[in-house]
Queue: 2 jobs
Job 1
Amino acid sequence: MADYEDWDAARGQDIVNGLAGLEGATLPILHALQAAFGCVPRDAVPMVADALNMSRAEVHGCITFYHDFRAEPAARHVLKLCRAEACQAAGADALHRQVLDELGVPWHGTTADGGITVEPVFCLGLCACGPSAMLDEAPMARVTAAGLRAALRARDDPRVAA
Amino acid sequence: MTVSVFVPRDMMAVALGADRVAAAIEAGARRRGADGRIVRNGSRGLQWLEPLVEVVTPKGRIAYGPVSPADVEGLLDAGLLEGGAHALCVGRPEDMPYLARQHRLTFERCGLTDPISIEDYRAHGGLAGLQRALGMAPAAIVEEVKKSGLRGRGGAGFPAGIKWNTVQQAHSDRKYVVCNADEGDSGTFADRLLMEGDPFCLIEGMVIAGIATGATKGLVYLRSEYPVAAAIFGQAIAIARREGLIGISVLGSPHAFDLELRIGAGAYICGEETSMLESLEGKRAIVRAKPPIPALHGFMGRPTLVNNVMTLAAVPWILAHGGQTYADYGMGRSRGTLPIQLAGNIKRGGLIEYAFGISLREVIEDFGGGTASGRPVRAVQVGGPLGAYLPAHMLDVPLDYEALAGIQAMLGHGGIVVFDDSVDMARQARFAFEFCAAESCGKCTPCRIGATRGVEAIDKIVAGMERQRNLAVVQDLCELMTDGSLCAMGGLTPLPVQSALRHFADDFAHLAVAS
């Protein structure tokens, strides 16, 4: 889980300027903006467009094409559950129904307390020990509903996490 | 004396608690006054045994797995640091049939070494291929790759030497080598294992490719779902630059070659080479029509060698040992070794590098030990989400590009996903269309519209609505997508759909009655 900065135009401009010299710099810039602010803020779009000599529509098109980029920050924790075939073969579908049901969210949804956003992901490369998941930056394999519950509890409890 | 304890840092081992295992071993050893040095190695590819802990003893490296953090105290009490007996002990890894039977060429070092130690890399045969290449004319390097019979490991199987030759012959102010590390196929993880376990091997392969084709810049397009690989490979690039392996003078030679790591953003289509080039150029990853081919008109409109991680990582071995030695492995027109990835509902999943020609059955039964659930194998998907589903009675097919094409299947990136008899193949067919609809770049109509209509038609079949007519619609859509799509995404989605219909027709009829 990351602590995101509030939007700051000068800081945004610094990020854009720092990477604009790369060949085809759009994705590196969007990733850097999202790492800082938790999303690609609307106000950053014209900055990226100016720096890369693109139209704002082109930048917007780029942001919306890729699943990773967000217009709004996710919840404090992001749980990605793998829905691809190898995990399906290991019982992922039933696990997902149970997890979504317990958390009370649909895919891409955020829990009522604003704590967890659940996203589908198509393959984490952990296909030999499915079902797999990623909680924030932590990969998980052979995931069970009970294991996920424990991991989510540990995330919000520094004593357990330590 | 300091005892070296290896605890893998590959993403699977980490997902199964390797970081906590390493910390527990370190703390436990210290409490016992023992001098243990933790080395975070790559994975041996024995993924079902991860985290696989190895201890260096006078008898060689002794392995234990799978080790959970809770096992560590008991292991230390049993004499882990001396290679003591314990229920989790699996002996010397190289004696295990799973490893001993393999032909480890590309993965010869993976799991043995500290991935970011260039000293380890050199000590285990690394850079021998590049040293030899530096003494050869570029055309001779290309000739060596041609002689090896190496074909693109990303899935298309195009002869690498011919592509290399095209880029070499092209005239331009600058050329590029682009490594496709957008390993999005479910059931595949060989690229990840190599980039996490032996990153210098890929760097060496790319440098050789640069020298052979005259390219001075390399880009690696890695998917964002692989953060561990990104961290390790990023470290390896920095070390390679410091050591003069890349930069303005490769190992003191007149050749310049630099390398940059780029991270994708969660779009499966970027595994398609032209879509990946668009993404690298900073655009929406919309597939380009070919021709012009990327070898002549690629990144930034320049001649670009686009190869998969496994293709480029095979090159150092080929240069070090000779193209003919590599070509001596394999069958038919599929020469060398294939990094097979065994996954899904499988007892012993992992990486199996083996000469082309091994049968699917040998892989699943001899290596894999059958399903993890203990139920019978019913279907096997080979080659990722765009690969065919094969029934249990067809598993004697050899893993070979042509043999699989001959039964309307494809080898793809060498991923094998096993399903037991609880699988519902109508659901799998629907998922193939659903996945295509979600991940289609939207440029061509057969893929963009066809996939969505496919989901609808299968839903109608399953619901028992005008089943025969809707089956005809699905077949018609499949034919149109195969013939009319711009790239493999739309063009190959019919493979899983039609193979499910052909080999598992009962699942479609049965469900209509059930629902």
Note: Chain A has a mean pLDDT of 94.
Job 2
Amino acid sequence: MLQQVQGSDAAVFAEDLVKEFGDKRAVDGVSLQVPAGCIYGILGPNGAGKTTTIRMLLGIIDPSSGRRTLLGRSAPLDAAREVGYLPEERGLYPAMTAREAIAFMGALRGLPLKEGRRRAEQMLTDRGLSDWIKRPIRTLSKGMAQTVQLLGTLVHDPRLIVLDEPFSGLDAINQEKLEAQIRERAEAGATIIFSTHVIAHAERLCERIAIIAGGKVAFEGAVDEARGRLRPIVQLTTRADSGPWQSALPASARRLGKRWTFELPEGGPEPLLKALIDGGAGIETLSIERPGLHDAFVAIAGEAAARDMTLGGAPE
Amino acid sequence: MTLPRTLEAALVIGRRDFTATVASRTFLFFLLGPLFPILFGGLFGSIGANVAATVEQPTIMVVASAADYQRLKEARDRLAESFPKESTVKLVSDRAPATRWTGPGVPPPPPPPPPVDGVLTGGLAQPHLVGSLSDDGTVAHQLRLIIADARAGPTQRAQPLTIKTISKSSGNIASARALTAHAGQALLFLLTLLLAGMLLSQLIEEKSNKAIEVLAAAAPVDAIFIGKLFAMLCVSLLGILVWGSCAVGALLLISNGSLAGLPAPALGWPGFLLMALAYFCFGYLLIGGVFLGIGAQASTVREVQTLSMPITMSQLLVFALSSTAAANPNSPAGLAAAIFPLSSPYAMLARAAEDGRWWPHLLAIAWQVLWLTLILRVAAGVFRRSVLKSGPRRRWFGLGRPRTA
């Protein structure tokens, strides 16, 4: 997998990252590559090690072992000015105004404070939020504060944007807006990495994903590749109750009246269709569906991890 | 990250901390802080003086002839101005004043005699004092003088001493310098304690509102450490500037527009103030560095209180050491206080008030710079390891032990 994208070309490259806290190994040999310009999802249930992995990639904490590069630099903080980071636990100073908070986050990344203030006003005005400009953060709702922090993450036009659980705490409308913003930034050439425990977001946005469970990478690659690990699902309804056509169905096929559900056999749809027609099944309806990312996740990470993903919501 | 970028990040963080602190209500209390000890000192001082004047004045009952009592009383009144006002003995006679009852019915009983500390018997010929008197002999000494004066009579009394007050004498300068040394040390200690506490609260607030992760993702932890430490130093220097201006203004008012009358410290006022500023910076940075390192270990206010208590107690010990040595900076205790890095700024400030030589200060500053570098490096390391619970476990130190992120 790691040979597909050269480490030097990757926006983010990690090899065998390990992080131990005391006797606990929180991340156990994570390797991944994020090609420049792609939207990359890190999927995993709560406590899988997503946040710790992101913190190591960004240089917030040092790995116990392993190596990583960020935008080609082995010391991640050297690339800090080209990176925007939205942490899972949002951190803003309550007394700061929205404009100052955004400008301050830009200043931390090398954007002059004056320019930061100008851009902050522009960003807020563009989103119809000009009345927030001089409002202290403590007077904003959680969702509003999250928007301010996201703008602070983007104010210096970073090449690499890392968002840790960006959708948590947002309502459906704001989730949709955020998805649109992510796509917009990606179209402008930025590389975007986000972690989530909600598979639907990754399915809609990501080109590549890493599935992390129990501190290990269970899968790393393109979304289609993850789905491709499962056979397509066939839904078949016949007029005939039985007949020689049944021998064309796999042994694992499930029957409900005249409706059958099974994985598409190795030979593909054409031999199956021929056998059904020749065997007199009397096909009433037939559909072949590609499995979703959720099905792929279940197959890769297991039922227990998938259950946590769908139940997820609490911070990691 | 390169050094210029680290310093730039430290400046951004420091500027934020400085403006946030100066614009907060806390800073107003910080500025008003020195007023409280002055107000409380004045209030309790005047209450104490009144209490001392009314309670501590010893009362002696005189059992003697009316003539002897009268002579003793006159002598006491003549000498009263020579005794401390609040402890001048008060004489009462054992004879009740002769009053004739003119009202209707039975005369009321005489008022009870006042509580007395002693009884003087034997008249002027053979005076004998019995009583529960203080050990310092002040009362007995006063009575001897009163009895001698009463025997000699007013005509034999010596001419009163004429007094002309001058502002400077060798004894007066020495005591004024000792006072300056103690006051300087106390101020330095209180200020560093207050600031280190503020620094710690701010760090904890930042850890609890998670802003620390935003900072740590953008700047090296060293930049955060330096930014925070120096921001609070600038806050305190601003405070000192305000307090200093007020103090100079008040002194100018009190001394009718001239400070020349104040006894100068050994290094002179400019030299002393310069050294005070330098020692304040060193004292604060040393203690602030230690507090930040400690604060990084804690995640709640309760943990901070637990952790900072032993540090504060140690600081008190350090202050006690340097305060004891202030009177004699060349004593072994004085030299030890000057050499021990955490007490050195206090001890050397006292020396600046009492010793006019410059070279010990240059040596002390070099010594403190060395220790400051060392302590800041260690504290920044502990801070780096602990503030986000990062890095491998340090079994030898315990304090740097990380926990789950």
Note: Chain A touches chain B through 38 residues (CB under 8 Å).
